[in-house]
Amino acid sequence: MSCVFCRIVAREIPADILYEDEFVVGFRDINPVAPVHILVVPKAHVSRIDAPEVCDLKLGHHILCAIGTIARQEGLQEAGFRIVSNAGRDGGQTVGHLHFHILAGRRLVWPPG
Predict the structure, then answer these.
(1) Are 23 and 87 in contact (CB under 8 A)?
(2) CATH of segment(s) 4-104
(3) pLDDT tens digit string along 31-87?
(4) DSSP state letters, the chain
């Protein structure tokens, strides 16, 4: 298994896991770009948001519920946070496993990049 996120899900690579359910895992990013930088990944290997498996596995609901739970758990509701999912090379995706970034802890500017 070479996918870093699959290896984190399988506990082959240690991670600071904040949330886990039957479908997704949420953990702190080891290279944060904001004071709070959490990744939420499906346990199943799905390449990106436009992969058919996202709908087949009904991952959207599970991921959004996990993001909401993590945001409440981490106290992010009042100041706010940003959710980002990159898709493909031009979209900035660097790991070929669907993942969502939760960014918070500072004022985030728009446009992002």
Answers:
(1) no
(2) 3.30.428.10
(3) 999 999 999 999 999 999 999 888 887 888 899 999 999 999 999 999 999 999 999
(4) ---HHHHHHTTSS---EEEE-SSEEEEE-SS-SSSEEEEEEESS---STTSHHHHHTTHHHHHHHHHHHHHHHTT-TTT--EEE---STTTT--SSS--EEEEESSPPPSS--
Hey, what are 21's tokens?
Answer: 């359910």
Per domain, the residue ranges of the chain are 4-104
| Active-site residue flag, 61 | no
Strand-pairing partners, residue 25, are: 20, 41
| pTM for the model | 0.93
Choice among 61, 62, 99, 101 that is catalytic: 99
